[in-house]
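Instructor's aside before we start: the two examples that follow are unrelated to each other. I chose them only because their records fit on one page, so don't look for a connection. First example below.
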Amino acid sequence: MPTKKFVEAALAIRRQSPAYLWEDICQVLCSCAESATCRQVISKLRTSANSDLAFLIESLVTEHEKNMTWREIGLCLSSIGKAQCLLIDDGAPEVIWSGPSTEIIPVRRIDQILYDLIGNARQHILLVTFAAAKIGPLSESLLAATERGVAIDLVLETEIDSEGQLSFDAKSAFPVNLVGRARIFCWPISKRERNEWGKPGKLHAKCAVIDEAAIISSANLTGDAFNRNMELGILFRGGGVPRKIMEHFTSLIASGTLSLSA
């Protein structure tokens, strides 16, 4: 009988795992001989570029090998995955967090979730940010997505349109070959309202829509936001929220509120 700790660990792994990786984990565990050692089982599992996810998988296998057979672990994970899929299909939101962890909200680094979603994107990626800097791994993930034929739209703030509220264009953080393959949009200064001191509004939204998933968070696309800051967000897989966000930005582009960047 799986313990509450086992179920919680399994759900944490399922939430971070692409479908192909989750299925591979379940199949490998179900097919392993009862006499196989923990090291042997782990060596058969497909690797993941997400270091947090790899650690969670190894921890679950190591901790529960003495209480359950490999087949029992695999069957339990399969059942938990099917239950989780029902919630995903309903678009149930999940709190995601970067920073010090607590028992209430464990750390699920926003950048790792973003990389996983981009790594499995098949159709379209929309990224919206105020600032961008030191994003080598993100740029590599986006370039790999373009090689698979994924369309990429970036909505970015500019130094000129922010009238100095941003010290340099967010676009400058992306490599030239990626800029050439993506559509990049800005919010022209002529479309912005000004406050009583004459300062224009900022393009301050931070979100991502990747196929049928969406992330809304406090995090800019920067190294600090990904690795050092305290950042909070919400992940939606399926449901109506990703579609509504995408339709909203599509409408802003169609109306001319957002324009293609020069």
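Example two begins here.
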Amino acid sequence: MIRNFIATITKKISERRDNPRYKLQIPIKVWFEPEKKAGKLPPPQLLTEDCFICGETFDLSITGIAITVPSIRIRENYLVGENRTLNAELDLPDGKVSMQIVGTRYEQIGEHLSVARYLIGARILQMTPENMKVYEHFLHNGHKILRKAASSLALEVDEV
């Protein structure tokens, strides 16, 4: 009983200390930030915008995002590790929002290999002020915006 009480108090304190996370599922496109040219070697062709992976957000906050993707890597390069900077583009109802993120952790979700997906936790590194304004507005009003968008897409059936 005391252990449960302490666990509850610890959870409440950590929730107040951390930024709130909003469970919002929206499409996301992720690709590698091109690496700077090192000496006389040409940059790898893999790290370009035309080589990307699409997924969906799991949750969002001011400082980070969690996304689900079908693979943990693009070709032979892992999305998480080595402090690799990634570009991300969220497809919000109010428009696209671009940001730079760095993956901090990942775990495989799904029980079978044919449907396995990866949950990636990432920290937001950079965003333009305009994108930040749209992103923050979506964080605080996302459930209403998504509900309104879904109701406008509802199909009407004519009765005979």
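The chain has a mean pLDDT of 82.
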